[in-house]
């Protein structure tokens, strides 16, 4: 039986991004050995979208109130990398990880599955 999902983010500065996830996002975690941190994620859901191009995977964080969340991030010095855009399915933006990578985040306007 499937018991969970394991998401991997590849990073040019894994230690800094792990510290960001621990300290800024405040996700609890475990040390899998040698400082290799693995974090508990909030409830999750998966969607499968059609594509005409090569298959790819994306990772987004979801929030209930994007404007409030962005205010909290800005107060902590987190860079917001994209202006908030209104999509048919939600409000979308992204923040900068210490490694320079973007982490998309959105406030869904669609029914959510993660609490089923």
TrEMBL record:
Protein name in the entry: Extradiol dioxygenase
Organism phylogeny: Bacteria, Bacillati, Actinomycetota, Actinomycetes, Kitasatosporales
Origin superkingdom: Bacteria
InterPro entries: Glyas_Bleomycin-R_OHBP_Dase (IPR029068), VOC_core (IPR037523)
Annotated Gene3D superfamilies: 2,3-Dihydroxybiphenyl 1,2-Dioxygenase, domain 1
Source organism of the structure: Streptomyces sirii
SUPFAM superfamilies, alphabetized: Glyoxalase/Bleomycin resistance protein/Dihydroxybiphenyl dioxygenase
GO molecular function: dioxygenase activity
Domain VOC: 3-108
Keywords: Dioxygenase, Oxidoreductase
